[in-house]
Amino acid sequence: RAAATAAERGRRLVIVANRVPNPRERAASAGGLAVALQEALAEREALWFGWSGQIAEATSTRPRLARHGRLTYATLDLGEGDFRRYYQGFANASLWPMLHYRLGIAQFDREDYAGYRAVNAAFAAALAPLLRPDDTVWVHDFHLFPLGAELRRAGGAAARRRIGFFLHVPFPPRSVFCALPRTEELLADLAAYDVIGVQTEEDAAHLREALTRGGHPEAARRVGAWAAGIDAKGFAAMAERAARGPEAARLRASLVRRALVIGVDRLDYTKGLPHRFTGYGRLLAGFEGRHLSAVTYLQFAPVSRAEVAQYQALRRELDELTGRINGQYAEFDWVPLRYITRAVARTTLAGFMRIARVGLVTPLRDGMNLVAKEYVAAQDPEDPGVLVLSRFAGAAGDLEGALVVNPLDPDAIAEALDRALSMPAAERIARWRQMMDAVTTHDATAWSRGFLAALEGGAALAEPGGKA
Ligand code: ADP
Ligand code: G6P
Question: What separation in Å is there between the alpha carbon of 29 and the centre of ligand 2?
Answer without folding.
Answer: 9
